[in-house]
Amino acid sequence: MSASITASSPSGSRGPTIVLLLSASLWGLTWWPLKRFGEAGLSGPALSLLTYGVVGLFGWVLLLRQRPAWRSQTGLLILLALVGGWANTAFVNALMLGDVVRTMFLFYLSPVWSVLGGWLILGETVRPRRAAAVGLALLGLWFVIGGTRVLDSAPSTSDMLALSAGLAFAGNNIIARAGQQIPMLSKTASVFVGCGVLSAATVWLMDLPLPGAAALASPLGLGLLVYGFGWLVLVTATWQYGVTHLEAGRAGVVLMVELLVAVLSATLLGDERLAPAEWLGGALIAAGALLEATDGGEARARVDPLEKTA
């Protein structure tokens, strides 16, 4: 019985951390094009199908070409496609249906799931600094959502989608970290394929309309192409690279920068406004992300339970 040993060091994690910060910033701005597509009459599942799904067709070809590399971890790749696909599908629909800031706050319970999952599944150590970073983030989240007032209203469909997206996002991070034999490009492609399959199933089951040929030949179609093959490919590839090369707990907290970018951009570019307590919460969340992102830690080696082979 052999096991894969993963070692990390301050210098080795700096590059992936920067890449993940870039990805998080772009994800934080994703709400803006989504809202524009919604104003053009597209539903969330239709948008996911026409962007993630179309890119996924090309991704499927890539997956077949790289099959020898990931064949030994086929199960993990399929799981990554389903979990990562749902994370993106649910996130897109939640943003299009609900309030941007509220959706982001609910989604960003994901660092908690990442830290817990990294500890329970991957055997990662929750050091005091990481625990403090998560504590700061959660305290900030409590201020932003209004404290006990969050319990006054029942969760909506967008709320449940945001929560499930956060849980699936954390699961994707853990699976990507465990699947060290799967090439990064295959990980990225699998998410697009999974999102396309889930979106197609939703469109079919709910009998949702899709834009016709005339609409796709208009600026709307060009916008979908740019969004799918430009924005989404970039943010997904950088996301997968970051979570593959960082511990699940570290990646989950670093990605909280997405929340800060989303809140600030929704406030500056949209119609959403924050109260003083919410600004305090955002500052605490940013402090938690910065604390984790600048944590060099100690060089360490860890046995990944999911990487054991006979």
Any overview of this molecule?
It is a single chain. By secondary structure, the protein is mainly α. It is built from 15 helices and two strands. A two-stranded antiparallel sheet has the order 1-2. Helix 8 packs antiparallel against helix 15 and helix 14 (257-269) packs antiparallel against helix 15. The chain is globular and about 50 Å long.
Q: What is the topology?
A:
Elements: E1 5-8, H1 10-28, H2 31-39, H3 44-65, H4 67-70, H5 74-97, H6 100-107, H7 110-120, H8 128-144, H9 157-178, H10 184-206, H11 213-216, H12 219-245, H13 248-254, H14 257-269, H15 276-293, E2 300-303
Antiparallel strand pairs: 1-2
Which descriptors apply to this entry?
310 residues, disordered C terminus, globular, two-stranded antiparallel sheet, single chain, 2 strands, disordered N terminus, mainly alpha
